[in-house]
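Practice problem: DUF1450 domain-containing protein
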Amino acid sequence: MRKCQVIGKRGTAKVKKIRYCCRNFKQGTKGVYRALKEEHSGLKQKKRDCLGHCKLCSKACFAVVGKSKKLISASTAEGLQKKLEKAIG
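Answer key — structure tokens:
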């Protein structure tokens, strides 16, 4: 297992955070959450009841990444996982 770290503006290593909407788990993000939890042990992942993106939540898989709260979405869970892994680095 590898640690997922990003070099911050000051050169310090920071672990990225990924936030998931529990209501979006029925779209397939639960599998993404579990896969990334196993694959990237140093990654902080949080589950929240609602992230406030209800229109997107009902149509696609999504997660919110980092302190900037960047929204990453895909039409499938596999697509979301690929995008998240790319964002992690």
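Discussion: The longest strand covers residues 17-21. Students who identified this feature from the tokens alone can consider the problem solved.
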